[in-house]
Amino acid sequence: MTGAQRDLRIEGDKAHPANAGRLCEGADALTAMAELDGRLLHPLIEGRQASWDKAIAQVARRLAAVQARHGPGSVALHVGGGLLTEDYYVANKLMKGFLGSAHIHAPWRGAIGGVQRAAYGEDVMPAALEDIDRADIILIVDPASLLGHPLLLERVRDARATRGTRLVMLGADEGIEADLQLPVRGGSVARLLAGWLLHIIDSGLIDTDFVAAHVTLPDRFRERLAPGHDLWSVARACGIEPGEVRDFYDAMGPVDRLVTMFGETAGADVAAAAINVHLLTGRIGRPGASPFALPSGSNGMGAREVSCHVDELAAHGDFAEPMRASVARFWGARQLAERPGLEDDALLDAMRDGHVRALWSIGADDGAADWLRAARAVVPLSIRSTDRVEEAEEDWTILLPSAAWIEKDGTVTGLDRLVSRQRRVFDLPGEARPDWWMLTRVAQAMGWGDAFHYEQPADIYREHGRLTAYRNDCRRLLNLRRHAPISNPAYAELTPWRWGEVPFDGGRFATSDGRARLLPIAGQAEAAIP
Question: Do the beta carbons of residue 135 and residue 257 sit within 8 Å?
Answer without folding.
Answer: yes
